[in-house]
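quick one: pyridoxal-5'-phosphate bound model?
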Amino acid sequence: MAAPLHPSLDSTAPRIQPPAEAVQLSQRARGLHPSLTLAIAAKARQLKADGQDICSLSAGEPDFDTPTFIRQAAAQALEAGHTRYGPAAGESALREAIAGKLSRENGVPTSLGQVLVTNGGKQALFNLFQVLLNPGDEVLLPAPYWLSYPEIARLAGASVTVLPCEATAGFRLDPQQLEQAISPATRLLVLNSPGNPSGIVISRGELEQLAAVLRRHPRVAVVCDEIYEYLLAPGLVHHSLAAVAPDLAERIFIVNGFAKGWAMTGWRVGWLAGAEPVIKAASALQSQSTSNVCSFAQFGALAALEGPRDCVQTMAAEFNRRRSLLSEGLRRLPGVTLPQPQGAFYAFPDVSACGLDSMTLCDRLLDRVGLAVVPGVAFGDDRCIRLSCAVSPAAIEDGLQRLERFFAGL
Ligand code: PLP
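yep, here:
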């Protein structure tokens, strides 16, 4: 019998165990859930290393190497002596290149002073939430959501109100639902397109409708997490809310990074863009916490932005093939409802017809057929599970067969 996937989601267990002796953990630390996706991927790796027959569809990162010209640029920067402290907000050349990308590619006019280079998209979110939110403020979070948002919001002392979006409604956020959820305490709305775990892409028309709601609520800011921007199904276009509604740009913050599009997860380079006073505050926070992102890694990121994009397109095309393979396979399984993922590299089917909650289901999948996937409860929807297609087509086929075997044996 495999050990439970993760103790932190066991309702009978405290989230983080306080130390037995004199040193006491803060309330903040005790309330934290460690990242379940990282924990499951690590556990699957460990079981494999122990010789068990495991198929893991839990990955949250591209399985490609960072393109050669980017690695070479970082190596050259290292050789050239970019090994010291740099400006906390990032190298000017990189901030300028990011501002240029946002202005040209996304239609969001941006200057260098509106960009902060961060340790991945995650730190961009962390810094933003820290400088925008006070205890008692409310964050609106459409579900399913990426599992770090609620933790990062709570670390800033804010409360989280989840806006459930149904699989049967294609996981779409209804503007009326947003309007009704906004309270005097609401300070921030989180939008993530293409979405993790749903793969949903918010269309221009939907953004216009959401913007119409936001115009009636001038105290509500928006963070747009665009980290999967390049991973789109054929025919789809990524739209930035700040380009669709430029009149709201002062309160729209963009989070993005190099991890997913350029296969640079380990480099830890991302960015936050938005109104200059907020970027200044987030830079000050960064200057007192982590300081600058690894100097030579920033030069690799600069090369990525300035270099050819065929590498990004090739990887995106491969993810499209695999996403189709995964979603077509899932659709063939009885009792599975799957809103078509349109981007990123996940599928988030509703499998509640099997009668198990997502944690129990994932535990049993690992235990009985050696399949590691992530329970939907971690993403705010206990009816679903998340499967990743950032693995080889053979691993996707293998995972689908294991899932089929498991359902047949229920
Ligand atoms: N936002 C979303 C939706 C993600 O899925 C992830 C990583 O999985 C991130 C942000 C953070 O990415 P990074 O590795 O750049 O911190």
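The chain has a mean pLDDT of 94.
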